[in-house]
C-alpha cells in the first residue's frame, strides 16, 4: 500500500524504515515530503491493519493445533463477541466525530478497507499452515 496504491504515500521500504532520517537535505528522501510520516492517513492504515491482524490472531487461537475448519469460530461465542466489540470500537474512533480528530486518524474508504483485508487476512492462512505442520509432522 505505502508504495503502490494511488492514494498511498509512495515511499520505499528503505524510506519507511528510516523515516527518522527524513530531512529536505537528505538525498535518500529527494522529492518526498517528510510530513507524510506524520499524516493521519498512513497512521490509520497501519492501525487498521494491526487491529485486523490481531483479530485474526484471536480467531487462530481457538485451538493450538486444530484448523478453523474443524473448530469453527462460533464454538466460542465470547470470542466472537469480543472481536465484534473490538472492531466496533475501532470503527468508532474512525467514523464518529470528534474521535478521529482526537486520535489523529482519518476515515478509510472501501478500497482502503479492501487493502487492509488483503494485508491482514493472510495471517489466517499462515497460521493454518503452521497448525497443519504441527499436526502432521511435529506431534508424535
From TrEMBL:
GO cellular component: membrane
Membrane topology field: Multi-pass membrane protein
Transmembrane segments: 77-96
Annotated keywords: ATP-binding, Magnesium, Membrane, Nucleotide-binding, Translocase, Transmembrane, Transmembrane helix
Cross-referenced InterPro entries: ATPase_P-typ_cation-transptr_C, ATPase_P-typ_TM_dom_sf
Cell compartments where the protein resides: Membrane
An example molecular function term from Gene Ontology annotations: ATP binding
Alphabetical list of Pfam families matching this protein: Cation_ATPase_C
SUPFAM superfamilies noted in UniProt: Calcium ATPase, transmembrane domain M (SSF81665)
UniProt key word Transport: no
Domain Cation-transporting P-type ATPase C-terminal as annotated: residue spans: 42-133
Protein name stated in the entry: Cation-transporting P-type ATPase C-terminal domain-containing protein
Gene from which the chain derives: Atp2a1
Amino acid at each position: 500500500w505505502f508504495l503502490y496504491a494511488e492514494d498511498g504515500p509512495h515511499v520505499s521500504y528503505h524510506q519507511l524504515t528510516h523515516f527518522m532520517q527524513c530531512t529536505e537535505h537528505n538525498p535518500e528522501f529527494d522529492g518526498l515530503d517528510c510530513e507524510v510520516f506524520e499524516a493521519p492517513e498512513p497512521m490509520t492504515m497501519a492501525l487498521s491493519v494491526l487491529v485486523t491482524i490481531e483479530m485474526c490472531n484471536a480467531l487462530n487461537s481457538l485451538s493450538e493445533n486444530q484448523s478453523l475448519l474443524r473448530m469453527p469460530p462460533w464454538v466460542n461465542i465470547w470470542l466472537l463477541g469480543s472481536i465484534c466489540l473490538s472492531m466496533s470500537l475501532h470503527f468508532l474512533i474512525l467514523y464518529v466525530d470528534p474521535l478521529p480528530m482526537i486520535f489523529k486518524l482519518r476515515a478509510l474508504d472501501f478500497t482502503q478497507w479492501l487493502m487492509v483485508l488483503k494485508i491482514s487476512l493472510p495471517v489466517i492462512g499462515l497460521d493454518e499452515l503452521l497448525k497443519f505442520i504441527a499436526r502432521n509432522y511435529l506431534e508424535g
